[in-house]
Every structure is written in structure tokens, then in C-alpha cells.
Amino acid sequence: MQLEQQKLYAKKLRLWLLGGLIVTLGLAPVLQQSLDIYLNFRWAQGLAEGFFNAYDGHVYYLDYPPLCFPVLWLVGKIDQWFGLAGNNAMIQLSLKVMPVCFYMLSTWTVYLIACRYTEPKRAYHAALFLLLCPTLFVNSVYWGQVDTVLIFFILWFFYHLDEGRPLAATVVLVLGCVMKLQTLFFLPIFVAYMVYRYPIKKVLVCGVTGVALAYALFIPFMIPRLSALYAEAAGQGLSFFPALTQAIGSSLDYKDGVALPFNLYFGSYNSYQYAAMNSFNLWSAVGMNMERDVLNAPIISGIGWLTPKFLGNIFLGVSVLLPMAYAVAAKFKKWQADVWMLAFLTMQSIYMFAAMMHDRYQIAVLPLLLMLWVRKKDYNFAVAFVLTAVMTCANHLMTIISYTSNELQQFFFYGAGSMIYIVFSLFNLALYAYTVYICRPYLFKPEQPVEAAEGKEE
Amino acid sequence: MSMIKLKNPQLQKEERLKALRVFLLAAGLGLVLILPFIIYERGYFFYYGDFNVQQVPFLRLSVESVRSGNVGWSWLTDLGSDFIGSYSFYTIGSPFFWLMLLFPSSWTAALVGPMMVLKIAVSALGAYLYVKRYVRDYDYAVIAALLYAFSSYTVYNIFFNHFIDVVAMFPFLMYAFDELVENDRWGLFALLTGLSLLNNYFFFIGEAIFVIIYYAVRITAPNDWEFKLKKFLHIAAEAFIGVGLSAFMILPSYIGIADNPRLEGFFNGWSFFVYDKTQRYLDIFQSLLFPPELPHYTYFISDGNTRWQSVAAWLPLLSLAMVIAFLVSKKSKGTWQKRLLIYSFVALMIPGLGSLFYLMKATYYSRWLFMPVLIMAMVSVKMLEDREQDEERRLGFKWNAVFTLGLFIPVALIPVYSNNKLSFGLHKTAWGGTAMFFICGAIALACLAVSWLLYKKFYHADHARYKKLLTVSLCATICVYGLFILISGKTSSQSTKELLDDSLLATEEFSIPGEDDSEFYRIDVLDGMDNQGLYWGKPSINFFHSVVSPSIMEFYKGIGVERNVATRAGVDKLGLRPLTSVKYVFQKTGKTTALSLPNLTYIGQQNGYDVYRNENFIPFGFTYDKFIAKTILDSTGIGKIDQVMLQAIILDNDQVVKYGSMMQYISSPATECDFTLEGVAAESALRRSESCYNFSRDNQGFSTEIDLAADNLVFFSLPYSKGWSATVNGQPVSVEKVNLGLTAIPAKAGHNVIRFDYETPGLKTGVIVSIVSAVLLAGLFAAGAVLSRKKSAFGISTEAAGELLSAVKTDAANENQSQKASETEKEEQ
């Protein structure tokens, strides 16, 4: 019966997805915008000229990790073969294909995973929630961002983690991180949950595996720099190992040397020195959206170190350490820690309180809220999803409108229009408080058999 | 008939809790509307227009003046004005202002935002107290309170700030009136009458007329109040005592504004019956069916001549739906609410009737709409509370939708062919008008949809949930539309730099290089913010204030400067600045108007302005060697009076007889006066040569000295008032009204120490009347307390107990009847 239902709803969903794919791919070239898309196109062109040496500077302002390169490379190659440069519609379409596909894949993933936790009807509705979420539509079909890739990876990552497959989760997390930088925000949850659930040995094995895999994925992109430096060292008459050692040492001076992953992740984090970048969070709520000067200015005169950046980092640290502390406490107090909830609260907290947050970073909590709804069968999470979807969609639209013209940019960033950011941010903070409130009863529940606790029917 | 409720402790507790909840809920919603502004302006609540240039600096000036005891003459108000007369309209009569006095003066500007939140919360509380008498379910009284406190009238009039004080106090006045008539509660109505009059005398006139109509309607409506002479006399007595209570402020204010030209003229002829602009009628419908337009920008119905006029009476979420339902309901036939609403609507459509709320004065506004809004809120919840009237409610929803769409669609879509160009829609398109129009329409239409869906899905199925969802939706609507309107208005605001860095926060450090503290001077601000001088604590001839001394009005009218709500004298008035002791001219940086003024020396930049010193400056207090009789001046019909005044003092006939011998006379100003730039400079130098020095002022007036070569009149560019008295070398002298509204005193040859003292006209009499009234009020309360002891153990009078008994019987009979009817209906089915 359950299986039949599952198949029935799967069939329905496939129709939705087919329709969705047609509509989104049909609209992708029509809904044109220039925000980021031409930067991505330049990356594609650059990658087509040199793939593994992407980080040597020949690709303009490249700050994405390498796993999304193949798609960009393909677009670049298509441009070389057919000349896309003058065809705006084709540029838009070619660069939006990947996010749109991941949009559909994420929807399907929600259904698949939700079916493990709840009845097919609810799983189907959860998938439709995601498919019809205007934020994802704007994000992928209009803006051409790859946040749907992040959603896809975090869904599978947490699913494996929750299902007791830490190694698979590690691999997914690493792939996610190497494809979409912001996946890294979930690393602390991974560590916290591993500590909560598994013996230290397993934690270490997964950790080492993850680091090794990540590094391995980066190595091809370090090789061009290392080879050049090795050749230079070898040219100085050094033998293999000394030359290699010297090349590795010298490569630290380059972005694409052995420290490439670190340069990429931390360099990217620090490259946007604004208190908030169009994000509806604490910093926008206090009127600091797109404020660069205040980031390192004392909040209270006379206390020079107490800057928004410092405070933001403290909040970031607390947002990361709190789930870890909670995981440790849960382990000893025998609380029933839910990794989805932990992830949701952590990501929400980071977004709401850390400085230098981008507008799009809240999008990651949407699938987590959906999964909380299907797992807890608590309609509060569905309400929270709808409200968060409204908030994230408004955030996307505000950002896009702001960049329409210089006048609008001035108005929304520094004029009376910035009050809209304040208003939305205050509402988002209230929404954050609401979501914490609805999570609270589940956080300190005593441990019980997983099946009973999560209402599994199988 | 109104409900009578038993005053048992449980009920009282429930009432108090609900009252607290409505207060906190409204405060929370108010905070949602105001907090973004406070954050944006780094701790202060600034809006735009009048709010920024009048309300904030007026409040600060008033707090500083009262706290320092300087409540006689306000030197910072235009050329100088009576403090009570000038600020009783804006600030000092409001209880919220009195609350501000508890805080340091430096906090005043920062308190404006929190005080606005408080006012809104108080207005909701008042509305709750008033409405709960008329509903059985207090949850509906909460909804009515929110509808009133957050109606479009409130949101629109945040722009005027002090109007919200009136919105806050009015329901309490109505509550007190009901208490007096229905529960025979003594004293409260008198107190509220006094407070309302103090709060704002302009609005009080409308409130008093509304209460009279309210009483008249209720005693003539069937099954409502009965007319009893004893009760009527009691009401009248309390009203008089209330008016007397406020005499200490109202009497000086009356004297102060009696000659204000804005009070001249009455509605008559066609203007009594119809508006001069046809669009005004559509604007009235817009105001009832949609969120408000902006005070300065009528984007929805353009050219209706309704800017600044407070045409706004939309109830959030419910709009007119339940009001229509009430009006079509059979149950409402003959009720006082229906009659009052119909009267209000007619008064809204016929300007003459509407102007009744302002004593038929020709300067007409729709500022009285907050009163019918309270009744609209009440009948809306009454309709929702009565479960039986489903058909009427559906009709209400339907016709509300028809009216809303009927206005929205044509204004949105009608093709307009103009200047060889086809466009669609009648709404304004400039300055984001199109976006605002459609957002405004979208909010109204969303309200239609949400209110209908809630009703359809939950009203009968789960009424408790319906009330909850209605309240939540109402709160959401208030947040969305309130923020939309307020933020839209804010886009017309001065920048934060202008308001804070260059104005509010610049006061402390404001000093002009080379300025002399022992000298009185004024400034002029060109192309800048109105009342900029007030922010800097400098007397300025650029001043935006409607209720200044009538002498100022007379003076500016005399020299040909329009002085309606503000003084903004053009640079063509070459004599004005020397005559009024303007020493510094502040020209907004980047603008060049000041270059048209003669003899200015650039001395630097300050707070966003280029600062010039006026080399034609004449110190405050100087003499003339010529005079001109006013009758001769009038007969010549010459312009440039300001320049004539620089050369000759204008005296009336009596003054000519008294002082004419001290000076030469001018009989032909056109030939005898020098109107060239050189002439202005030369005459300014002459006046300066015999002028006052050692000026000092205090809370009672000012002192100065002058050395005269011969007996003469010493002229001060000080608005004449009967409150001024003067001594020269300790001897009293008469204060003369010269130069079309300004002041002069006679002085002897040699050294003169001049002392001017100011006593607010009418203040002493007013205080005596207020004290007597306060004693009478105390007597009223005492008498009321004695009478209340006679009340029954249930906490109601024997008279009320009788009414209660009959009410209970009637209710029971009605209930039985309706039960039987429904049973019969079921059987028939």
C-alpha cells in the first residue's frame, strides 16, 4: 500500500518536474539579467582557455571551487565553437541549465528522502513546496545562481548522516564543499553530530577521509603551479626531492599553490568587507547594510576592538560552537539530537548574526525546514518554511532591484530605501525567534528509539 | 440599546487584562512601524516635511522653555511670539508632552519615536474602553481598538505628529461622556473635556460639535438615551467646568490667535454645498476604500486639491465591508450609529457641513474624520459579533469589493490621450506614483480577499479561530500598509546628514566666527530646511509656524510678504533683513540666491551652508530721524514698504501727534526715499549709528541700553503685544505699535537703560478660572463618590439595576424567540 502510494506520488511528481523543467528552461533565456551572469560567462570563457590552471589569474576574479568547472568549461567551449558572445539569450540559458537541473533534482531528492520519514502524500507536498518556492525560481531561473546545488548536496549529506552512513555523508559534504563554497558552513554540524553519535575513531576516519578527498580534488588545480615551480627549481640544479620541497614551499606565495583550498575559502570570506551584503539579518536591522566603513569602526567610542566585524566573528563562533556544545551535552544527557534541526539552527544563527553575510545564504535553511516539517509532522515548520520563503524571495528581489540602476542602488543602500532592509531584517529576526521557539521543545527530548521518535512507518 | 455588564471582580479582572493586552499589542505594532525609522536615523524618529521641521524642533524648544521657566515670550519663534499662544496648538497642552517634561531636555528629540508608540497604544486603549460597552465579546473590542488606532487616518497623520495626540485622547472623551450619561459617573467628563481642550483647541471644537451631535442623535434615536433636563444640565455643567479647567492655557491662546488671518472667512455660496474640484469626491471614496495617499503627494486621485488635508478613513483589512453590512442591516434601522454615520458621510460630501467641525471657517480640512472612524470601527465589530446577520455581512463584502474595484480599475486602466501620446490610468506617474498606486491597490485587494476567505472558511466553522486569525491578519495588514505608507513618505525626507549632523546634533557646537554674545541678532536661511534656525537655537526670519503673533502676520502683510503658514521672505525685500537685525545669512551650499542680496561678506561654511555676514546689519533697537504717517503711506500705494521702513518709522495718527515733533516727516516716499542698493546701505548705516547695545534677555523680557542725541522713539523689530510693558531708566513708558505691527518706546536724550517685561495676556485671568474650575471639579468627584455609595451591592445604581433587569428580560425573550425561529426553520427544512 505504502509502496503503491509512493509510486503514485512519484509519478505525479515526475510530471510536475517535467513541466517545471520545460517552464524553467523556457523562461531562463527570456528572464535576462546581468547581475553575475556575465562574470560567470567570463569564467566559462577563461576555463575554456585553460582548465587546470584556472586559479593562476587568467580567469577574471574566479573565487569558486573547482567541481563546478566542468559545466562552465563546457559553456566556454560552446562559446568557442559557436560564438555565444553576441547571443544574450543563449548565454543566459547555458549558464542557467546547471542551477535549473539541480533545482529539479533537489525537488526529487526531497521527495525521496521525505518518503523515508513520512507518508508519501506529505513527502509529495514537501517536494511541491520546494518546487513552487519562488525563491528557488528567482535564484536559478532569473539570477542563475547555483544555490540549488548547495541544497541538493546538503539534503543528501544530512540524509546519510542521519541514516548512519557517516562515510557517505563525508563524501557528499566534500563534494558539496568543492562545488559550492558555502557548504562549508555545515562542517561544524558534521563534526558536532559525529561526536554525538559515533566513537572518536570513526570521527577521525571520516575526518581524514574528507580532508584527503577534498585535497585530492584540488590537487589537479595546483599541479600547473607546482610543475612550473618545480621546473624552476630543477633548473637551478636541484634533485627531485629538494626541487619538489622548494616548489611546494614557494607555491605558498601563490593562490594556486598547495594552500589553494585555504586561499579560496578564507580569501573569499574576507573579500567582501561589508557589515551585511543585502542580507536580512542583525546587521541590516541596525542599518548597516552595505556599510563598509563601519565594519572595523568601534561600536562604542573608546573600545577600539569592539567592532562589528569582531562582534560578527564572535556571533559566528558562538553559532558554530553552540551546536557542538549541544551535541556533547546531548551525548551525556541522552537528549535526542536531530541533525536536521541542529543544521537548521546553526545555519539560521550564522546568517542572522554573523557579519559579512550575503543575501542568498539563508536559502540553505529552506530544505532543512521542509525536512523538519516532514519528520516532526509539526505544522509550525511548514508555516516557518512559507515565511522564510517569503523572506528569502523578498531578499532576492530587493537585491536584484537594487542593482538595476545606480540611482536605485544609492536609494536602497544609502537612502530612505535602506529602511526596507531594516524592516525586512527586523521581521527576519522575529522569524528567527519564532523558529527557535518552535524548535525548543524538540531539543531537550530524552533519547528514545529512533523509529518511534521520528514516526517511521516501516 | 447598550449593554450593561455586572461589575463582578472576575469580569473586572478580565477587562483589565484585556485592556493591558490591547495596550501592549498596539504598542508592539506601533513599534514595528516606528523602529525602522529610529534605526535608520541613528536613534531618532524623523519622518518628512512638517514632522521634521516643525514637530521635532517645536517639541525640543517647548521642553527647554518649560523646563527653564521661559514660558512668556519665545524669541526663537519667527520675530518673537507669545510662547503659550504659539505652542498650545502644537505641543504644550498635550499630556504626552507633559510626560516628556519628566526627561532631560537633551532627550526630547530621541523621545519623539517612543512617544509616538505610546500615543498609538493609548489611542487603542481608549478605543477599547469606549467600544467594549457596545459589544458582548471583548475580543471584538480589541479588534475595534486596533482598527481605530491604526486606521489610515492615524497613519496619514503621523506626518503631523500632534494630531495623533488628539486621536489618542478622543475615545477617552467619548468614554467619559458615556459614563456620565449611562452610569452617572461624575467628574470624568469634565476632566476629559479639559484635557481634550488643552490637548488641542483646534480639534476640540470639532470634538465638542461631534459630541453634541452624538448626544442629539442618541436622545432622538429609538430605544436609546432619553432626554432629561437634569442630565442635560449636568452635562452642560461638566462641560463648562472642563472648559474652565483649561483656561490658563486656552485664554492666552485665544487672545494670541484671535487675529490670525487663517481664521478669517466662512463657507458660503456654492462652496458651502460642493467642492471646487470634482476629483475631491473620488478622493473621499479613495480615503474610505484604500490605504491613504501621502500628505504631500496625491498619487491615487490626482488634482483633487486634497494635499495635507487628512482625507483618510480606511479601516485596515475590513475596509468598508462591515460598515456597509451595518448600514444595510435591518437591525441597524434607526440606531444612533447608523444616523451618526450617515450624517458623517453627508458632512464629508458637503464641505459646508464638514466645516461645521471648525466653526464654518473657510480654511477647510477633513481632520475630523478620526471621530467617525471610531464609530466605523465599532459598527464593524458589532456586525462581526452578531452571528445571525450572515446575509448582511456577505452583502457588505460584496459591495465593498464592487466599490473598491469600481474605483481601482478605472483609475488603473482608463486610456488617456494627451499630447499625442496614449497612456493608461488616471493615477500619477511621477515620483514612483505608478508603483505606489499599484501597491496601494494590491494591499486593498489583498485585504478584500483575505477578509472574505477568513470569513468564509472559519466564521461559522470555528469562530474562536476566526477571531484569532482575524486579529493576526489585521496585525499583518497594519504592518504591511503602515510601513508602506511611512517608508514611501520617508523618501521625501531630508537626508540624515541634514537632519542630524547639520541640525539636531549641531546645536551644541553651533557658533559663528566673530559673533558677539551681548548682541541680539537674527539669521536668515536661504534654500535650506525650514526652521533651520530653530535647530541651531538662533532666531531666524525664516520660520514655518502657523500660529505666531498676529502682529507678525500684520507686519509681513504690510510689507507684501505672504505669511500664511510660514515666513519665507524673498531676497527682493532689501530692507527687511537690516530692519529685523539679520546679521548672518545662511545659504545652502551649491545654491546662489543669497548673491541677490546687497552687502554680504562671505565668512565660511558651516553645517552644509555658506555663511555670509550682512554688512547692512542694524542692531536690535534703533532710532529714526524721519517718520511717515500710515494714512499717507496707504494713500501713496507705494510698494517696497520694507525699504521705506528703513528710512522712516510708520506711525498712526495718534502717534504722529504724540511723537511727530521728534522727527522730520516724509510726505512723498516715492521721491523722498532712496530705493537704490546704495540707499539701503546708507540708511542702514544711519540707523546703526544710534542703536542699542548691551542687550540681555531673561525669562521675563529683555534689557538694553542706548545713548540718544535727542528725545526720540526707539524702535525694536519686536512683534507688538499687549503683554509688553517697558521702563526707561526705571520710569514706565508706553509701548507703541509702529511699523505695521512692530514695537517702539519713547526715550529721552542721553543715556537710557531700557527694560521690557512680558506678561502673557490673559494668563492671570486664565489661571484664576482654572483654579476655580479645578475646585469645582474636585467637588464633582467628591459628589460623585458620595453618590456612588448609594449604589447597590452589584455595583450599579438602582436606576441601572432596573435597566439591567429589563435588559436581561429582553435578551432572554429575544433568545427564546430566535431559538424558536431556528427550530421552526429546521422543521420546515
Would you write up a description of this structure?
- The complex is a heterodimer of chains A (458) and B (829).
- Chain A is mainly α.
- Chain A has helices at 2-27, 37-49, 69-82, 88-117, 120-131, 134-142, 147-162, 166-179, 187-197, 200-235, 240-251, 260-270, 282-285, 308-333, 339-353, 365-376, 379-402, 406-414, 418-443, 450-454, and strands spanning 276-277, 357-358.
- A two-stranded parallel ribbon of chain A has the order 1-2.
- In chain A, helix 18 crosses helix 19 (418-443).
- In chain B, the strands form 7 sheets. Chain B has a 5-stranded antiparallel β-sheet with strand order 15-16-22-18-19, with no helix packed on it. A 4-stranded mixed β-sheet of chain B has the order 5-8-10-9. Chain B has a 4-stranded antiparallel β-sheet with strand order 11-17-21-20.
- Chain A binds chain B through residues 285-287, 411, 415-420, 422-423, 426, and chain B through 32, 35-37, 39-40, 42, 483, 487, 490-491, 493, 495.
Sum up the structure in keywords.
heterodimer, A: 458 residues, mainly alpha, two-stranded parallel sheet, 71% helix, B: 829 residues, alpha+beta, 5-stranded antiparallel β-sheet, 4-stranded mixed β-sheet, 12% strand, globular, disordered N terminus
The percent of residues in helical segments of chain B reads: 40-55%
Computed Rg of chain A: 23 Å
Largest sheet of chain B: 5 strands, antiparallel
Number of strands of chain A: 2
Number of H/I helices of chain B: 32
Largest sheet of chain A: 2 strands, parallel
Order of helical and strand elements of chain A: HHHHHHHHHHHHEHHHEHHHHH
Mean pLDDT value of chain B:
91
Distance between the termini of chain B: 33 Å
Largest interface here, residues on each chain?
A: A-B, 13 and 13 residues
